[in-house]
Amino acid sequence: MSLSYCKLPNRAVLKIEGEDRLDFLQGLISNDVNKVTATDGIYAAFLTPQGKFLCDFFIAQENDALLLDIDAEAMPAFKKKLMMYKLRANVAIADVSAQYEVFAAFGDKTTQSGVFADPRLEEAGYRAILPNGQDIENAEPVPFETYELMRIQLGLPDGARDMTVEKSILLENGFDELHGVDWNKGCYMGQELTARTKYRALIRKRLFPVMVEGDLPAPGTEITSGDKVVGEIHSGIQNMALATLKLDALDDELSANGAKLTPKKPDWMVLPESA
Q1: How far is 159 from 27, CA to CA, in rounded Å?
Q2: 174: left (phi over 0), alpha (psi -120 to 50) or beta
């Protein structure tokens, strides 16, 4: 298998510098920022104080700075929030999207500097935040749609395309199994609900890949079982989509706007025994 890569056109890059950068982020995000090294990145989310999803992102290290790979539409609001929480912290926060490009790579292994293993899942390959003009070395470019299909088949959410801002809960969207939450770090925004969801087994729905027979439903289309609404369609491509589904409806006959849906549980996903 060769190494393939594509640019991710829907991503922005935020740079955080300053001697307080680690402590500053540590109290705000769901993962442990101290895990970020010159070769390893993390996946994390920023939540409301009530524990609901606002945005997700990858964090990599470049010299003495942190680079955040984040959805371009979510970046302005996230940056504004960070500036609000900055107070007297010695940090500088800048949108450097014009200076960098974000890539996904998959297939053969690579040890290129600036390229790190996708922290969510080995099968997802690599992420990279590279200065303009740099590409993934010894790799063949592929269309964004190739990566998009792989992402959806693996069941990996892509920000607000697959999670509802100020409503979605991390553990309904795989953040536990996909290494987006650190259970041993100190307090962070939204931690209480996230921990309660895990330890009280409060998960009643999950984000699944679904195979679509018929026309691909638009994002936001309701999923029904008989006359009951049991979920919602999110991002999709070809005959696959990601969908939020109630766990007690997984064995039902499911449809969305006339298309038949078949859930495909990813190998990484852990469901309650009763599901």
Answers
A1: 21
A2: left
H or E element in which residue 144 lies = helix 144-154
Q: d(Cα 116, Cα 210) in Å, to the nearest integer?
A: 29
CA–CA separation, 246 and 231 (whole Å): 6
Query: Residue 253, Cα to own-chain centre: how many angstroms?
Result: 28
Do the Cβ atoms of 216 and 236 come closer than 8 Å? yes
How far is CA 134 from each of CA 7, 27, 106, 140, rounded to the nearest angstrom?
A: 11, 33, 17, 14
The CA distance from 7 to 72, in Å, is 13
> What span, in angstroms and rounded, lies between the C-alpha atoms of 54 and 150?
24
Contacts of 240 (CB under 8 A, 6+ apart): 149, 152, 153, 209, 210, 211, 212
What does residue 151 show for φ and ψ, rounded to 5 degrees?
Answer: -60, -45
Q: For residue range 157-194, list pLDDT tens digits in order.
A: 999 999 999 999 999 999 999 999 999 998 999 999 99
pLDDT in tens, 186-234: 899 999 999 999 988 889 999 999 999 999 999 999 999 999 999 999 9
Q: Return the residue matching tokens 């912290």.
A: 89
Question: pLDDT-based confidence at 35, cuts 50/70/90?
Answer: very high
Q: Provide the token pair at 81.
A: 């929030």
Strand pairing class (228-237; 240-246): antiparallel
Contact (Cβ atoms closer than 8 angstroms) between residue 81 and residue 88: no
- Beta-bridged to residue 70, according to DSSP, are 12, 57
Amino acid at 250: L
